[in-house]
Amino acid sequence: MPADAGQRARFADREGFLAWAFLLPTIVYLTALVLAPFGLTVAFAFSRSTSEAPSYRFGGLRAFREIFGDHVFWRSLLDTLALTGVAIAAVVILGTVVANVLLADFRFRRTVRALVLLPWTTPVALSAISWRWLLGSPGSPVDRLLLHGDSPLARTPSAAVAVAAVQVWRLTPLAAVIVMAGLTSIPRGVWDAALLDGAGFWRRLLGVTIPLTLPVTAVAALVTAAVTFADMGVVRVLTGGGPRDSTQVLPVLAYLRGVEGGDIGTGAATALFLFPLFVAGVFVVLRVMRRGS
Amino acid sequence: MRRRDETGAAAKAVEARRLVKVYEGRRDRQVRALDGVDLTSGQGEYLVLLGPSGCGKTTLLRTIAGLEQPTEGEVYIGGRLVNGLPPRVRQVAMVLQSYALYPHKTVRNNIEFPLKAENVPRHLRERKVRWAADLLDIADLLGHRPRQLSGGERQRVALARALVREPAVFLLDEPLSGLDAKLRAATRDELKRFQRQVGTATIYVTHDQEEAMGLGDRVAVLDAGRLRQVGTPRDIYDEPADTFVATFVGSPPMNLVQRGDRLVGFRPEHLLPAENVAYDSRVTMPLRIERMEYLSGDRHVYGSVTRIGQETRVIARLPATVITPLTVGETHEFAVPTDRLRFFDAEYGTRTAPVRIGG
Amino acid sequence: MNGLAARTAAREMDRQRRLATLQHVLLRATVYAGAVITALICAAPFLWGLVSAFADGSSPTTEHVRFLFHSTPFATFVLNTLIVGGLVVAVTLALALPAAYALSRLNRAWGTRVAVAILIVSLVPSPLLFLSLSRVVATLGMADSIWSLVLVYPTVTVPVSVWLLAGFLRAVPVDIEEQAMVDGHSRLGAFVRVVAPSILPGVAAVVVLTFTLAAGEFTYALTFVWSGARMPVSTGLAARLGDGDPMLWRSVQSGAVFVALPLALACGLFLDRFVAALASGSQTD
Ligand SMILES: Nc1ncnc2c1ncn2[C@@H]1O[C@H](COP(=O)(O)OP(=O)(O)OP(=O)(O)O)[C@@H](O)[C@H]1O
Ligand SMILES: [Mg+2]
């Protein structure tokens, strides 16, 4: 009996070791290519490195002083926040609607499902190209609708609206898939019970459906936020930040300053302003997970 | 037309007419879960639906409740045609087989939910929840969430959620299957007493025949989407309508011996050593004893009989009062009182008129 | 009196029935309208792209498509994307499969902690990394080559894949693995013979997703690769052909559709699996 117990313990030990051996490559890889570069970015933000002289030279708060004096930076910061906020709200609502439609039973369901995935699976730059063509080219349906006026991408409020709309268009399918998962994991009987208990539409919605799908909706919102505020494809291809920097966002600005402008310090400092958003996202994840368990 | 139906059905709590339910399965395969069911349950009656797994019991309840629309046929509740009406309007309380508690609500809020939907005032709600919790012995659990409960506790919460209402009919889908034997017997008694007291018609699904025979005012036996027989427990047991009912109800089941184009049936407890059966009206047969079991005082005798028909393996159940010495391997003369014999068509299994068997 | 009550009740029933029927009809109509509108909006830019690529004025033409393949590096872009995508899929599976297996079978406290850490890593926005990663890539001598993308893309795909695969693996009961071990297989043998076959469809789903993510990535591709013939399709079409005359634009539209459709179809095939994996992931945590 004791021998048996000893053997079992050793086996369990080995299993634990095996698990860590399996995890190690992933952990090493992610540390080397995510955590370490992140540290490097923070270091760059306090440097005067440029692409001509890439070696590290400490520059104190120089980069921050520079971007704080730049009105385009403030503009981009606001745009990024506004864009993320609008995208979350619209994507969550539309995603929930689309999820319910896709779960319903109707003819041509497979075709519709494949079409609905298009915005999300297409490389972002390509769909942005297509939107630019649809919105901006002479003779397109939108152009005809606007009676051959200026392209909506060349005017101020409409360009920002277009950017937000394309982000929402692109991320709604993803949110829909996530919400679908949440809806299908609710046991069917619960809907039946609510019907039997005599609950009307609103009571079912507020008392059963929304509370049960809240965690998964939070996940959908989070994914939307994470993708939206980090994305530079839509803005770069659709408007290039224009007209007159009115649709500029932080990631694109960081690219313009750090890569095209060659000032790595300013670019890194600009990008670093995405960090609070990232932390907020992590906070939400942890909250949702704690709720769930 | 409809007017006449409604007045004619006034004393009936629930009536199903020629109900057919076809499920569309994958790749155009169809499942006929209900195949023309006619069933009536009276006002205040305790009707038990009994049948093997997959025979359509749940489907029938769901169709009555309005969770499924029948493919054909009509459902009447309180004498009114309710086809096309949502469950809310039908005034039914149902315990689903899967319990279906709201995972995000406490036990108290789960039980309260249907009352809130009916806009019952708060003090009344609280009283009812207390009452149901005491009845089902879950008063300590009111603050818990479903995932913290055991299977049996969940089932009792689901039952409580149904009992606090005042519906036209209770539909209970195997509400006690998760309880241990003792709790089950106790809850069964409570349930029956409660139902007597409020006098609400109840349709109760089970595949446990003891539960069915013990609880039901009447028992409906369902098989493969068809009703085989509806009657009092006594009818079902003593006058089975066909061989399915005869063998499904009773444990051990009724013995069936083929004789020409008939099946002769008799219950194990009626097959006794010949000297224990009155001489003037009996049918005798030699039984070669293969095995014997002693179960709580009874003797179960396994063996095969000849003479009254083809040689067939049968079971006899001898009460403790029968003291005839029997030995394994020997052949002994057994007999059944003539009025205990039941006859069935050998091909279709339906009940037929008695035939004379000499000896 | 009683008759009057009965008649009122009957009328009420009829009203309710009409209401229920109306609700049902409205619901069906909403579902169909929703489906049609959603599909149309989702496909809108591509539809217009197709129309303008294949129609010149009113007559159909394949001129733009021929131009795309013969006179632009479109085919090279696609090839680059295929190479990068294939290699990224291989690297991702090699890293994520063992990790997911370990997470799904590791003791709960640690497993959850590591899983959350990996999830958080997947949220780190790429703009926070591309400047330093481009230094890393330059140091490794991979600047302006597709190898830089093969190196970096798994930072995006591995966390997601670990999560999905762990979801699929959790859906496989530990019992059947233990049964196989009782039946005389080693742990590895049990994994290969019993667990692997039952998650194979899930692995296929992850392959498709990983490829889609790799094909669609924009930030790193833009930063690390700048020579025309080395770009993947995601940046290549935009950078090289994005501006210029309408003739070129029409060709680009057809290119976008050629890339978009296969990806959407492949992902559509696995939609139910993604949903199932996400559902099982959200249930066990
Ligand atoms: N939604 C459905 N789709 C397709 N077939 C179904 C569906 N629901 C039930 N069935 C089929 O209908 C038949 C009757 O099912 P039902 O659930 O009514 O059985 P049951 O008598 O309640 O069984 P049990 O005692 O196991 O609960 C079964 O063959 C089942 O496979
Ligand atoms: Mg059932």
Our estimate of the beta-strand percent of chain A is: under 5%
What is the CATH class name of the largest domain in chain C?
Mainly Alpha
Cα Rg of chain A: 24 Å
Shape of chain C: flat
Count up the domains of chain C: 2
- Derived from helix and strand composition plus strand pairing, the structural class of chain A reads mainly alpha
CATH topology title of the largest domain in chain A: MetI-like fold
CATH superfamily of the largest domain in chain C: MetI-like
Mean pLDDT of chain A: 82
CATH domain fold name of the largest domain in chain C: MetI-like fold
Q: Could you tell me how far the N terminus lies from the C terminus of chain C, measured between alpha carbons in angstroms?
A: 61 Å
Low-confidence stretches of chain C: none
pLDDT under 50 segments of chain A (min length 5)?
A: 1-13
Q: In total, how many domains does the architecture of chain A comprise?
A: 2
The overall strand count of chain C is: 2
| Residue share in β-strands of chain C | under 5%
Beginning-to-end CA distance, first to last residue of chain A: 37 Å
By oligomeric state, this entry counts as heterotrimer
What are the secondary-structure elements of chain A, in order, as H or E?
HHHHHHHHHHHHH
The CATH architecture of the largest domain in chain A would be: Orthogonal Bundle
The dominant shape of chain A is globular
Overview of the molecule:
The complex is a heterotrimer of chains A (293), B (359) and C (285). With 293 residues, chain A is an all-alpha fold. In chain A, 77% of the residues lie in helices and 0% in strands. The longest helix of chain A has 44 residues, at 2-45. The two termini of chain A are 37 Å apart. Chain B is an alpha+beta fold and 359 residues long. Chain B folds into two domains: 12-238, P-loop containing nucleotide triphosphate hydrolases (Rossmann fold); 257-345, Nucleic acid-binding proteins (OB fold (Dihydrolipoamide Acetyltransferase, E2P), Beta Barrel). Chain B has ten helices and 18 strands. In chain B, the strands form four sheets. Chain B has a six-stranded mixed β-sheet with strand order 6-7-8-3-9-10, sandwiched between helices. Chain B has a five-stranded antiparallel β-sheet with strand order 13-17-14-15-16, with no helix packed on it. In chain B, β14 and β15 form a beta hairpin. In chain B, α4 (107-117) packs across α5 (122-135) and α5 (122-135) packs across α6 (151-163). Mean pLDDT of chain B is 88; it is low at 1-10. Chain C folds into two domains: 2-53; 73-281, Orthogonal Bundle (MetI-like fold). Chain C is built from 13 helices and two strands; from the N terminus they run αββαααααααααααα. Chain C has helices spanning 2-54, 63-71, 74-105, 108-123, 130-139, 146-152, 154-171, 174-182, 187-216, 219-224, 233-241, 246-269, 271-284, and strands at residues 55-56, 59-60. The model of chain C has no long low-confidence stretch (mean pLDDT 82). The A-B interface holds A 187, 189-190, 192-200, 203, 207-208, 211-212 and B 62, 65-67, 86-88, 92-94, 96, 98-104, 113-114, 116-118, 161. The structure holds adenosine-5'-triphosphate and magnesium ion. Magnesium ion binds at residues 57-58, 97, 173 of chain B.
